[in-house]
Amino acid sequence: MNLRPPPFTDDQFEKLAAWLERRPAGIFDIVELEGLLTALVIGPNAVHPSLWLPKVWGGKNPKFKDLTELNHFIALVMGLHNDLALIFDQAPDQFEPTFHESQGAGRPIQIVDEWCFGFLKGMRLDAAGWKPLKREQPQLLKPIELFGSKAGWRELDAGGAAKMHRLWSPKITPSVRAIHAYWIPHRLLKHPEFSGDPLH
Fold first, then answer.
1. CB neighbours (10 Å) of residue 41?
2. Cys-Cys with 17: which of 23, 30, 151, 187 at CB 3.0–4.6 Å?
């Protein structure tokens, strides 16, 4: 029997978001965390949680009240990770990043910087592994780098922030889906047992 994890609920998402906001170190924003986890899920190599969890909680020795709190926190983070893995395994064309929103000129404007910043942070955890994509199809990373890096922010300012946002922010989601598709042959070749199973 192939046991799948239960879906990550809105209540769990909100609980994890509130928990991150209270953390004294590490990642404070769940949108940034989702970006980081997305890069890990769709990237070229499996990165063990022991390598990326310290980035989430801010160091090798996280501060929690007790072991129960630590385990609960890890369960929520892994729940979000597995939910993303399940989406890309079963319906990658339906993936939509979670973005913050602000009101502008009477309509909501998506704030994409935190998500993109988190995605690039996830890429840096396997920098060597991502080199082929950066070399062969750098255009796929362009929208994410624009909103998630200092060099990109300078380019946004130079081109007119509002205009560049309108032009480039809609390209983030299709770029992420294309990045996922780019790495599938690599992951299957390197790890024949890998099938996108979120329990891996």
1. 23
2. 30
Instruction: Tell me, rounded to whole angstroms, the distance of Cα 114 from its chain centroid.
Output: 10
Q: Tokens representing 147? A: 């909103």
Q: Is 79 among the domain residues? A: yes
Give Cβ neighbours of residue 190 (< 8 Å, ≥ 6 apart): 44, 45
First to last CA, the chain: 15
- CA dist., res. 127 & res. 148, Å (int): 16
Q: Is 194 helix (H, G, I), strand (E, B) or coil?
A: coil
* Structural domain contains residue 166: yes
Please, which residues have CB within 8 angstroms of residue 181's CB and are 6 or more apart in sequence?
Answer: 92
Q: What pTM was estimated for this model as a whole?
A: 0.90
Tokens of 114: 């935190």
Range of the domain at 27: 10-190
Helix, strand, or coil (residue 98): coil
DSSP assignments along 30-50, one per residue: HHHHHHHHHHHHHSSS---HH
Residue 199 lies in a domain: no
For 145-188, how does the pLDDT look when each residue is reduced to its tens digit (9 = 90+)? 999 999 999 999 999 999 999 999 999 999 999 999 999 998 87
* Angstrom distance (rounded) from CA 32 to CA 20: 10
